[in-house]
Amino acid sequence: MTVNKIGLKDKNVIELADHLNVLLANYQIHYQKLRGCHWNIKGQNFFTLHVKFEELYNNAQFTIDELAERILTLAKSPLSTYKDYIEHSEIKEIKTEGLSEQKMVEEILSDFKKLIEIEREVIENASENANDEGTADMITGFLKFQEKTSWMLRAWTGKA
């Protein structure tokens, strides 16, 4: 079995990079949903949620860049078209115009649930199959942020 430039076995790394591309696609759809929520929020919690959605899409943008660069580090190309994102994402697009505050937060919580699920799979794949501690560590950081933010958003909904 051949070894790539950072000392990982090619076959396992290719599978891991493919898995990271699935995570990247889900993040891209999630990111756009957050932008839509930020732009279209209305109601009594406008100021709070407008700022929170901006914080979350900025975090998602950072995460997207980190994922794409990790995929490149693993010697694969990141997905880069919306067609590919939609095709590979389990998170679905929504129209945010007219959604209630509650529904927007529930949508973001649903996205986090899916992202956390995929991230746990990637961590397992990175650790057990590819012996790639770098990817596992990076994804663990993303996971911790989403777990904490999910708790906070559930508290906001009153369903903590």
Automatic annotation (TrEMBL):
Domain Ferritin/DPS: start-end pairs: 18-159
PROSITE patterns (UniProt xref): DPS_1
InterPro entries: DPS_DNA-bd, DPS_DNA-bd_CS, Ferritin-like, Ferritin-like_SF, Ferritin_DPS_dom
Domain of life assignment: Bacteria
Protein family: Belongs to the Dps family.
Protein name: Dps family protein
Species of origin: Pedobacter alpinus
